[in-house]
Amino acid sequence: MPPMVRVQLVGADYTTRSCRCKIRNVACLGCGNEIGYHITQPCTECLKACNNGHFWMFLTESVYPVEIKDHEVSSGTMAWPVLQPELDLEDMSALSCRDAVCR
Question: What does the similarity note say (predicted)?
Answer without folding.
Answer: Belongs to the FAM72 family.
